[in-house]
Amino acid sequence: MAFTPLPDQSKADLFLHLALMERSGLPPDKAFALLTLPAGLNGRLGVLRGLLNGGADLAAAGQKSGLFSEFEARLVAAACHAGSPARTYQRLAQRHALKARNAALVRSRMALPLVSLLIALAVQPLPALLAGSVTGPGYLLSILRPFLVLAGCVFLYRFCARRLSVWTDRPTPVQTALSGLITRLPLFGAMVVRKNLRDFYENLALLLEAGVPMLDALPKALRTVGLCTIRADFAILQTMLERGSTLSQAVANLQFQTRCPVQGYIVSGEASGALPEMMLRFADGESEALAHFQAGLATWGPRLFYALVAVWMACQILNRHAIWNSG
Prior knowledge:
There is one protein chain. By secondary structure, the protein is an all-alpha fold. Among the domains are: 8-91, no CATH class; 124-165; 188-288, Receptor-associated Protein, CATH 1.20.81. Helix content is 77%, strand content 0%. The chain has 16 helices and no strands. The chain has helices at residues 8-23, 28-33, 42-53, 58-64, 70-82, 86-123, 126-131, 136-165, 173-183, 188-209, 214-222, 228-234, 236-242, 247-251, 263-272, 275-326. The longest helix is centred in the C-terminal third of the chain and has 52 residues, at 275-326. It starts with 7 loop residues before the first helix and ends with a helix.
């Protein structure tokens, strides 16, 4: 059975609960017995409990039930093998809680502009409807058409994002071209690159902290990078480390390293013996920068949307006025 990914807020609640239960000393079966999820997701808990009762380990049961992603399952398995997974659970809870807060902020800020657009679309053709020059279905279509276009754009964006993030050893020319184009977009391209680099170093640090050897952790972390152009850039790390280079030396040869300078953190981590901690500190700083960017987007996006709606309404009024004068 294939499951869709859990919402970020549900994942944050899940991992926070597991962290608290782990610190309390409860075994996984007891921890999941006390867990509740939104109504539509409780069926997954039944699947997981059945797998655990059948002798499956926690990581495999979590992935098969749709509660863990593939990477999260590997991370939890490594953390359980190394000792207590409480810190891993806590870190995953923080990651998903931050993503949920940022997404909720953008949605809340964009709700009022969409309502204003709906009102504008409903009012603008109303005189024509009352005059009988527009039928009822035509009136409804004029209101719904922009929202259908917006829905199509959102669907296209999500489809492209899913296609770009599909792991493959040999990306298609389309994937390569789109990934390269995204990294070169003004303003947004830089933030997408920083997000991909943040994800790689954070996931690599979590794997190392869980006890996974560096050469085993690198390919696992690489699979979590969304853009194939960045994955290709990071692919040289494995070869350089196998030849005896340190991580800081290998990172210095990356094309995208200049977009997100992490080398100083890695040098400090290697010198102090706290490499995972320093990379997580770097990831925290990048997460704050990305959250600040999204907050700015949530602030200025609605204002730009209002301006576009106002310009559109003004153009419609001027166009109608010109038609009346010509008539």
